């Protein structure tokens, strides 16, 4: 959380320019915590495992509320490009298309920007989701979690739409935030 893990970028702070800052695994210009947690190919499998684990936690919580859930359905847009939103929840005439992401909180709007990015990525698939779920009321939502464990307040909207009580929302928020933090720490250790 303090961003003091001894990455090459951190160890070079305040030193002369001849200090090595490049990634020891992939050779990128800057070995930083944000790069390791979000981009370094050396720990890509761990990032995928973290992502799938968080998706599974959210899906399992909603199975209790009797939502039908499609995990990573394959949807082709009008240009025949393939998209795989993480989760599509539907019940009755309502469908929620959710894409989870873990982002390094490098600025105050990092998580809000990620949520907006995810909505823009999938909202053009309205017809395909309607065909998949046979519903007309479709909502697209990004579900960002902070790599430092920060909770995005907009994520409560999804938990509310899914029918969780106030205490359930707090429990799920705490669980997902902790898992995002601890699995991000695992990625750093694997690196």
Structure at a glance:
This is PO24 protein. The protein is an alpha+beta fold.
pLDDT below 50 for ≥5 consecutive residues: which ranges? none
The average pLDDT is: 89
Q: How are strands sequenced across the largest beta sheet?
A: 1-4-5-6
Tally of distinct domains: 1
Keywords:
single chain, 191 residues, alpha+beta, Restriction Endonuclease, 4-stranded mixed sheet, two-stranded antiparallel sheet, 6 strands, 43% helix, PO24 protein
Description:
The protein is of the alpha+beta class. It has a single domain, classed as Restriction Endonuclease (3-Layer(aba) Sandwich). 43% of the residues lie in helices and 17% in strands. The protein has a 4-stranded mixed sheet with strand order 1-4-5-6. Helix 3 (44-63) runs antiparallel to helix 7 (166-190) and helix 6 packs across helix 7. This is PO24 protein.
What's the arrangement of secondary structure elements?
Layout: H1 8-11, H2 33-38, H3 44-63, E1 68-71, E2 75-76, E3 82-83, E4 87-91, E5 94-103, H4 110-122, H5 126-133, E6 137-146, H6 155-161, H7 166-190
Parallel strand pairs: 5-6
Antiparallel strand pairs: 1-4, 2-3, 4-5
Protein name: PO24 protein
